[in-house]
Amino acid sequence: MASDPSPPSPAPLGSQVHAAAVNGDRSVLLRLITVDPSLRDREDQFGRTPLMYCVLADRLDCAETLLKAGASVNKTDHSQRTALHLAAQK
C-alpha cells in the first residue's frame, strides 16, 4: 500500500491576516485586528507585515484600515524595506 502524499507546504503568506491583506478582504482584516491588535504588524517568514502586502497588492482600502488601526509604517522586512520602499519599487 502506498503511503499518503506529504501534506502541502505552508502557504507563503504567514497567516490569515496576511491573506486578508493581499486578497483585499477588509472585513476579515478588520475583524482580525480588532480581536488581536498585534496582528496589524505581524511578520511572516519574509519579515513582511500585512501593510506591506496591501501595498504590493494595491489594496489601498485595507492599507488605510491598517494605518488607522496603528500599523507601523517603519517596520522593515528581511531585506530592510518598509511599505514605502515597496510602493516606490512598483
UniProtKB/TrEMBL annotation:
The keyword Repeat applies. It comes from the Eukaryota. It comes from Salvelinus namaycush (Lake trout). The keyword Repeat applies. Keywords: ANK repeat, Repeat. ANK repeats lie at residues 46-78. This is Inversin-like. InterPro entries: Ankyrin_rpt, Ankyrin_rpt-contain_sf.
